[in-house]
Amino acid sequence: MRILIIEDDKLLRKLLKEVLIRNFFTVDDVGSAKEGEQMALADIYDAIVLDVILPDGDGFSVCKNLRESEVQSPILMISIKGEVERRIKGLELGADDFLPKPFELEEFVSRVKALVRRKEQKRAIVLKYGDIVMDLGSYKVFRRNKELHLTYREFMMLEYFLKKAGFVVTREELIDHVWDQSYDSFSNIVDVFVHSLRKKLTTHGGRNIIETVRGVGYRLI
Questions:
Q1: Which positions fall inside the OmpR/PhoB-type domain (predicted)?
Q2: Residues 111 and 24 reside in one and the same domain
Q3: Residue ranges making up the domain that contains 76
Q4: What predicted TM-score, i.e. pTM, was given to this entire model?
C-alpha cells in the first residue's frame, strides 16, 4: 500500500513516515502544496495525508484541485487548528477524514488503515490473468488452483504487473510502486525480486510470464 504525506513540518513528517513504514506501508513524502499536488496527480496512492497549513498554499486548495482532477485516493487532512468549521470545510471539499493536531501516532495509523480498507472495499477484489488469480481482499495468489506464498513486496510487484499486463514496466516504475521514491534506483533489488517472483510463479508448472525487455524493464506476456 502506498501513502503520500504532504506536510511541511520535517520532524512530524519523518515521524509519520517511520510509523507507517513500520506498519508495512510504502511512503512518499513532500513538504509543499505544489509538489504534493503534482505527485498525487502523477501517481496512484492508496491514501494521502494532507496538512492544511503549507508554506506555499493550503491543504484545502490541494484537496479541491485533486477532487476536481478526479483523483480518487482517500484523503486524511491534519491540522493544528481543528475547529468544527475547518473539519466541515475539508470534508465538503472531498476529504475523507480530518485529524486535529496533536494526535497519537497509534490513532493516526488507525485512521490511515481505515481509509485504505474503505478504498479496498470499493475496488475490484480479484485480478485474473490466464491461470493466475489474485485476491486483493485476502492477499492470496493462485496459479493452476494452487496457492503461491508471496512476500508483501512480491505481491505488490505482481499486482502492478497484472494491472499493466502487455505493457512494458520500467525498473523505476517498480521501485516507485513497490518501494518508495528514496530507494536507490541503481540497486539490483528489482532484478532480485523479479527472479524470485518468476521462480514462485512456476512452482506448480506453467510458462514464465515475465519477459525481460533489455535495457528497459519487464513485461507480462
A1: 124-221
A2: yes
A3: 2-124
A4: 0.61
